[in-house]
């Protein structure tokens, strides 16, 4: 099986196959100079609980947490939590067709919408603040990803939103 | 240090008017003294740890603190209803609210904190500066009164010399403070400080201080009983700050000469005496490594977040001490009994995303394993499965390590952070490890300017393990895709795998 | 106590030849010194905590320890394969196996323990008694050699006077010991001790000692470096025992006069010197409160389960010390630097059912919340969801509390036990609380006879809360019956309930 | 709804009904002198995880763990773990009919069968040791619950058994 695994704008195409009672994962790693090398690891996996992945990787003992999120997993390794998107390339075309990603504004952080700075139909510039979401006494301004027109507003001031919630849509 | 038994009459049952780790901390101290406890909670906090740990729990209103944790009359009502005879305010919320302290006493309850008059005296920054000057305590050069006009302020700034600090007289917690480097920036800084002060503290009074370059933030812990005895418990170095919020705290401060420590401690006891202080309090100073001088900054008339490091090196349980002092006991040790033994460091674990400009990261903790073992202390406010709410402070726990020296404390803390597993939300764990590995931090001579934007950029990227994350996420997805009915490998299922594992069991 | 840096050449990577909490403890010490670690595990232990915490892990065989943790050659092979340069044996298993210690050294690895010769010298109880007598150490009156015949033994017993103790010369861990009160019981006791000794230790040599009535079990911790320096770290009182197994340990021993403590410590250092001891070791004594005399019992040539209480009052990390001593460093403090500060108590948490004659209670830990907060140390070998295996010792964790005095340590430990939640298996948690509440324990003058059958019957029934258990089980069943599709009330689901709760949110 | 709840040979008949967003539990408690009194408690239940029951009982904060076991739940409250059987009286007759409890021997503790002390057809006395199960280096002798004859043996020496597993049956 092949997956496209994306962490912070770097995508690796990872092949995974069972091998004996373990898993074999293989991908091509590109270093800073553009040199390519093949990584291949035999992983003995144990999941002490659904979210905990304990892995013996070529004898090395590693542990990661994987909690499903809107676009993949929130993965933590030794204190660093990262969003990891895992895409099955066979289903990718389908998903891209359905989504309309360009002008969608969603929040990474759950919170409360304290101010809507635009109205339906307003012309906006890329980078212009559109909504203010507050959580834990901190305000976060969310900015327009593109130049365009506000085509849809999905929340009202005072609404509490979950992480990943769609707030509004800007059409180019 | 053989303590007498606690006078039982005044603390029959204690209500803790707070939430999170500090409410848990206070409940623990009460239970150790066999005092029953009452938690109060907002509607958003039914599942909070302090509710689980307390003996009783009373709901006091909706999620926003203005409708629950800041509603003094509801808290007092809850105390009377449950038969509590005393209230501990923790830190934050109503802990430095003199009016609430008075209400508590007027309701016939014991207030586990300093007298309202002491809170008031220290509550106004300018008022506190005046009192301290009168008591002979060194303060940062500047005004001791709020300044009326921009013109007057500018004249004083030019006399003192730039850079200067504009500060809200009613401020606190690192808010309402602005540095002005140049004459040309003064007008706009003056206006924005005043408006922020009005917005945040409902008080637009602003005063002015000389800016002390690269100071250390050093503070002295004091304990005073109701019988006129006051001791200090040495200093804490809280200079690792981001946006004026403490991130790492330690004691002792390694660059503080012994004589300066003594002088600072003497001044701190003087300052407490000047307001007839009772209970646990902290006097904050700026210390200039360049000149060796120190200046009074403010007094916090409550328990501090960072009180554990003092506990670890002195062996004194500060919350237990607060309870016994409130019960009327005289201090059961003298200044001479107190020693600084070894070294302690605290880091604050926040639900925030350091790699995304420290954005708050509330959400469900999908899994949690806190570190343990020797000299590792976790003061936590959360548990596995807990939903960190959006309504309150993002601090989820404090991690404190003691060592026989600073190197041992540091390496132990690094080990404990390595064990810390918080799943499903972003935290500051790796960022804190990166700070502890920083050479300047390791030298110990860092100042409050330590976390420069450049250093932050560097430290927030440390500790990434993208290959391991890649492997784990791929496994998660593959097992989800291929065995959706039973996605979890149980230990049992894995036993048979061992036999088949190349190079495994023989 | 400023330590030099660790000489890096000898401890590049440490293999820990053990499992459970002690393996975790040693791994922690290594990681604090930045030394990479290798865990070994049996097929039953793929999911064990020490495997999760180590840097690397190697499977060394099937579940029975005779086929894994006791197989020295496989452990050495694992060390060589992973590039480990040293082996720490923990306690139990191969820790006091002189042949293994030799094999390790012969393989070119560092043995983190005393020389094989010292292990051997102390391994035979009769041999050790002979050496101690020669070194001027007081021993319990009796024979210093194994006795050949029953007749000879009986004659000696009658000369010393009943009651006497029959002991296996090759024994340890409380096994192979039998008290004989009357002449008429002697023959059968002699035979059963011999056969148990043969069965358990493959050595039927038996010797005889006078029975000391109601003694305290007091032991002295020593540390010796490779350069001839040996210090003691004071005593531990381990008199709370059941079936010769320690249950609660504390330091200081409250009834030990200062002069006796000094004498005992001096003798302990003498005993260690007599066998050219290196590393951490413990000399066990019987102390008679009636006569004030003490007698050498045996030396444990390894780390003890109860080492944490010594760490808590002296501030010395004993495992770190073992590592540094094995690396060849001289001790970095002197006897005069060491002080007993405050009081520490340890309790052992077992997977057992005190209400059912302490039957072992392996099984899956359905939920786990370990206590935290100030001066609470948990040395745990388990986690939530872990299946406690049937193959090994039932100890799942140790809980240690420090206090500025004994009362503070005790009440803190009671608080911590109250917080301890182990779900799905029986544990000794409530039994331990009952011990700590016992008036005789609180006085501190208890002896090894403390846990009489009558007291056990009483203590194992304490703390029952049948009404709360009734309510919880009924709720579990009702929610299971009425909402099988979604049996869990999430915090969210509960929020709306608050509004409807009588007397709840307003 | 009514349940028969049994802890250590004491059975309480507990009525449970939702009341607002809480539960009302009622039963008759008999004290040591045989005096009866009615207990009635309003419980605000929160389950932070499936096995954790946090209960506000008339403002008192209590927590219990409930893990399903062979015959009900293993319930822990403040460090004491107890087996609690909860029976729906309407289903009770059915269950009693099916079971043949008297002479069944099962193990409370998982472990390994180290010795079978009887053979099929042996006559045994109540209290006579029948099987030895070992766990954690401790041997446990399991005794016959009744006088009778060994009618069935379900395990062999060396078998590893789970908690609650049926070992053998003695017919009267």
Question: What's the CATH C level of the largest domain in chain B?
Answer: Alpha Beta
Strand order of the largest sheet of chain A: 1-2-3-4-5-6-7-8
Q: How large is the share of residues in beta strands of chain B? A: 15-25%
Number of DSSP helical runs of chain B: 17
Residue stretches of chain B low in confidence (pLDDT < 50, at least 5 long) are 485-506
Radius of gyration of chain A: 20 Å
Shape designation of chain A: elongated
Largest interface: A-B, 67 and 64 residues
Runs of chain A with pLDDT <50, length 5+? 94-100
Gap between N and C termini of chain A, in Å?
A: 37 Å
Give the H and E element order of chain A: EEEEEEEEHEEEEEEEE
Largest sheet of chain A: 8 strands, antiparallel, barrel
The CATH architecture of the largest domain in chain B can be given as: 2-Layer Sandwich
SS-derived structural category of chain A: mainly beta
The total of beta strands of chain A comes to 16
Backbone structural class of chain B: alpha+beta
The level of helicity of chain A is: under 10%
Mean pLDDT of chain A: 88
Assigned CATH architecture of the largest domain in chain A:
2-Layer Sandwich
């Amino acid at each position: 099986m092949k997956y496209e695994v994306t962490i912070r704008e770097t995508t690796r195409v990872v092949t995974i196959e069972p091998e004996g009672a373990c898993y074999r994962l293989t991908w091509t790693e590109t270093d800073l100079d553009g040199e390519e090398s093949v990584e291949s690891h035999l992983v003995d996996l144990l999941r002490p609980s659904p979210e905990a992945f304990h892995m013996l990787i070529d004898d090395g003992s590693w542990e990661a947490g994987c909690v499903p999120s809107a676009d993949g997993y929130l993965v933590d390794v030794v204190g660093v939590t990262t969003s990891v998107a895992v895409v099955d390339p066979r289903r990718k075309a389908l998903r891209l067709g359905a989504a309309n990603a360009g002008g969608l504004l969603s929040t990474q952080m759950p919170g409360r919408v304290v101010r809507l700075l635009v109205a339906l139909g307003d012309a906006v510039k890329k980078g212009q603040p559109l909504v203010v979401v507050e959580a834990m006494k901190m305000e976060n301004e969310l900015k327009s990803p593109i130049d365009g027109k506000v085509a849809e507003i999905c929340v009202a001031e005072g609404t509490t939103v979950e992480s990943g919630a769609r707030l509004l849509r800007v059409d180019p | 240090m053989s303590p007498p038994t606690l006078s039982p009459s005044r603390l029959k049952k204690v209500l803790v008017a707070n939430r999170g780790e500090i409410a848990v901390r206070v409940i623990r101290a009460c239970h150790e003294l066999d005092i029953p406890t009452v938690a109060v909670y907002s509607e958003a906090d039914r599942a909070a740890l302090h509710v689980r740990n307390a003996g009783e729990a009373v709901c006091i209103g909706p999620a926003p603190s203005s409708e629950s944790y800041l509603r003094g009359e509801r808290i007092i009502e809850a105390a009377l209803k449950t038969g509590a005879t005393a209230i501990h305010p923790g830190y934050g919320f109503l802990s430095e609210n003199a009016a609430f302290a008075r209400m508590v006493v007027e309701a016939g309850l014991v207030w586990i904190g300093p007298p309202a008059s002491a809170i008031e005296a220290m509550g106004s920054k300018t008022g506190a500066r005046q009192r301290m000057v009168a008591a002979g305590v060194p303060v940062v050069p500047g005004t001791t009164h709020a300044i009326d006009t921009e013109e007057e302020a500018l004249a004083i700034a030019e006399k003192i010399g730039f850079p200067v600090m504009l500060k809200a007289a009613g401020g606190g917690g690192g808010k309402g403070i602005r540095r002005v480097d140049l004459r040309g920036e003064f007008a706009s800084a003056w206006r924005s400080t005043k408006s922020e002060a009005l917005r945040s503290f409902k008080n637009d009074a602003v005063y002015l201080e000389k800016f002390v370059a690269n100071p250390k933030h050093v503070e002295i812990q004091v304990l005073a009983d109701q019988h006129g005895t006051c001791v200090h418990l040495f200093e804490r170095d809280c200079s690792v700050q981001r946006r004026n919020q403490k991130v790492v705290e330690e004691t002792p401060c390694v660059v503080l000469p012994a004589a300066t420590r003594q002088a600072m401690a003497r001044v701190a006891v003087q300052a407490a005496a000047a307001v007839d202080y009772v209970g646990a309090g902290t006097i904050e100073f700026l210390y200039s490594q360049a000149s060796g001088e120190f200046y009074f900054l403010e007094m916090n008339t409550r328990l501090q977040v960072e009180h554990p490091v003092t506990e670890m090196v002195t062996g004194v349980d500060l919350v237990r001490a607060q309870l016994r002092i409130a019960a009327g006991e005289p201090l059961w040790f003298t200044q001479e009994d107190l020693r600084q033994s070894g070294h302690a460091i605290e880091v604050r674990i926040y639900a925030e995303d350091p790699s995304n400009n420290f954005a708050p990261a509330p959400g469900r903790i999908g899994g949690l394993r806190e570190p343990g073992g020797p000299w590792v202390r976790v003061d936590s406010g959360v548990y596995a499965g807990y939903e960190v709410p959006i309504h309150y402070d993002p601090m989820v726990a404090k991690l404190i390590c003691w060592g026989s020296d600073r190197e041992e404390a540091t390496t132990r803390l690094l080990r404990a952070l390595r064990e810390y597993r918080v799943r499903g939300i972003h935290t500051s764990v790796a960022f804190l490890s990166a700070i502890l590995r920083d050479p300047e931090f390791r030298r110990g001579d860092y100042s409050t300017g330590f976390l420069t934007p450049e250093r932050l950029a560097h430290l927030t990227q440390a500790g990434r393990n993208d290959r391991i994350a890649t492997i784990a996420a791929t496994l998660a997805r593959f097992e989800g895709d291929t065995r959706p009915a039973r996605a979890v490998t149980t230990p049992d299922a894995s036993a048979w795998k061992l036999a088949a594992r190349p190079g495994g069991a023989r």
